[in-house]
Amino acid sequence: MKRTIVEVVLVLALICAGFFGWQSMQKGNQASTSLAALETAAKANEESLKESEKKVKAADEAIAAAKAEAEPLKAKALELEAVKAAIATGPLLQDVEGLYKQQKVLSVERQLGLGALRMLTKGSTDPGVAEAFQKALQLSDWSSRKNTICAAQIGLAAIGEKVKVMSECAVQPSGAGAESGHGDAPAADEHGADKANEHGTDKGKEHGAAKKDAHAAPHWGYEGAMGPERWVSQYPTCGNGKSQAPLNIRGPFVKGRMTVAPDYKPGPLRLLNNGHTVQVNVPTGSKLRIDGIPFDLLQFHFHRPSEEQIDGKPMEMVVHFVHKSADGKLAVLGVLLKEGNENPGIKTLWSYAPATEGPEVAPDEVVFNPGNLLPKELQYFSYEGSLTTPPCTEGVRFFILKTPVNISREQINNFPFRRNARPVQPLNDRVITEG
Questions:
Q1: How many domains does the chain have?
Q2: Is residue 209 part of a domain?
Q3: Checking CA distances to 139, which of 27, 103, 129, 305 falls within 20 to 30 Å?
């Protein structure tokens, strides 16, 4: 009996020992699983830490690079402060303004310099700053004088004026290289173009090469090595654009609904022979209203023969009136000139127009109204075109009046340019409207 009890006790003890052993083994397995999970998490944290260290290192390098780039800017800022301090404490501005008052008309560069001096000495709130920069823009012609236009636009933007700065005027870092032409600014050439390189003609060759500098646009003309067929080599839009001007105007036409109403005012006469055309710079006040929207008249100029053709035939000449809206759009009103009686308005202009390239002239007490060159009838042909000189930027609306005005043979012969007209361009599915 005792032996049986002992055996039972031993069996129970073995069972208990086995149970406790199995339980311990289960706990051990759980501990191993937890340990493996901890090791995986630790490895992931280690990788994350390494990645964070790389990002911190990259950020430190970026900060160091930014600091290195900021050093020259600090130097430039100090230079600017030194210039401002020197000018603000001296009579330079008074001397310059006194000197300029002796001149009846200031050049574009002098207007620009005057604006810069006033900004430095008087601050951006001085009304003379905006006035000087605005006058510089009015006198500029939007082609090869890109630097002047950019400076004036950036200056106006800097003082808070609402002005659209051309994309080509973005500030480039030093060492970025010289400018490569003028791209496709929406306001350029004879339709707001530069006085020094606007309409390219055989006379342009005489002056262009001598006046080029490191920032000059490539020279172009109406014949020779850089005639119209070669413009594309320097100005791609001239060859690749699909809405180029001028056009041969022929039917069928689509009825146009736009209203065109010139509102030109008399003002002091200012003429320029820029080596490419005779151009008349117009003071503010004259406008062309297209469907009631005002476009300021900037200038007008002449082409021989007319750039536009009617049924394949050009007129003896054409005058292009160049307008610009507040949002930067360009519109050109063209008046065809046919041989006939002497034109009184052109007689006045030719009396003062320089025969050779040179600075703007402003004859004393001579007033001219651009409206004197318009016909009474304002029916028109209209199409979407481009600048007719490099860079041939597109998006220019043309209105060519159907009724020509007279110009005498003598007046045609007295125009200083034998030929300064771009050949007509492909229509490319465009629609010509008449109104």
A1: 2
A2: yes
A3: 305
Beta bridge partners of 249: 310
Task: Kindly list the catalytic residues.
Answer: 276
Which range (121-125, 161-165, 335-339) has the least confidence? 161-165
Is residue 20 assigned to a domain? no
> What is the pLDDT at residue 297?
98
Q: Is 158 exposed, middle or buried (0-12, 13-18, 19+ CB in 10 A)?
A: middle
What is the pLDDT confidence band of residue 211, given thresholds at 50, 70 and 90? very low
380/400 Cα distance (integer angstroms): 5
Task: Return the sign of the alpha-carbon dihedral for residues 208, 168, 134, 91.
Answer: negative
Written as one letter, the residue type at 225 is A
Neighbours of 154 (CB within 10 A): 16
pLDDT digits (tens, 9 = 90+) for 225-238: 889 999 999 999 99
What amino acid is encoded at 200 in this protein?
G
Same domain, 304 and 228: yes
- Exposed, middle or buried, 427 (CB in 10 Å: 0-12/13-18/19+)? middle
Q: Which three-class secondary structure state does DSSP give residue 281?
A: strand
Residues 268 and 397 in one domain: yes
More confident call, 352 vs 187:
352
- Assess whether 148 and 281 both reside in one domain: no
With CA atoms as reference, report the closest residue to 362 among 301, 274, 282.
282
The owner of tokens 């173009």 is 193
CATH of the domain at 335: 3.10.200.10
Domain that holds residue 206: 202-434
- Read off the pLDDT of residues 131-172 as tens digits, 9 standing for 90 and up: 777 766 655 544 445 566 777 778 777 777 766 666 556 543
Residue 348 lies in a domain: yes
